[in-house]
Amino acid sequence: MNEHNQVVVLLEDIKVLLSHTKKVMNVDDLAQYTGLSKSKIYKLTHLKLIPISNNPNIRQKFFDKDKIDAWLLGEPNLSDEFLEHQFNQSLLKNRK
User: What is the distance between the alpha carbons of residues 47 and 45, in angstroms, rounded to a whole number?
Assistant: First the structure.
């Protein structure tokens, strides 16, 4: 790898590190920060299992980094089986 490529790789690494210092994250930022897929994040927001902003004037979803950190440290069950169960429970609740 030549020196130019090393500099480019280093700058990309710095860019990723700086993105983790953001106070407010969108879905893309959150996926990169947590390692969760975007589809899993959308599923979690639909089931109201992840802390999310409550601004009715903004359609895009935003997440507070401090709340996400606390949520992650709370060891949530993010398995597909658990999420499927929660989804089915919410469907049953909404049917009544």
Answer: 5
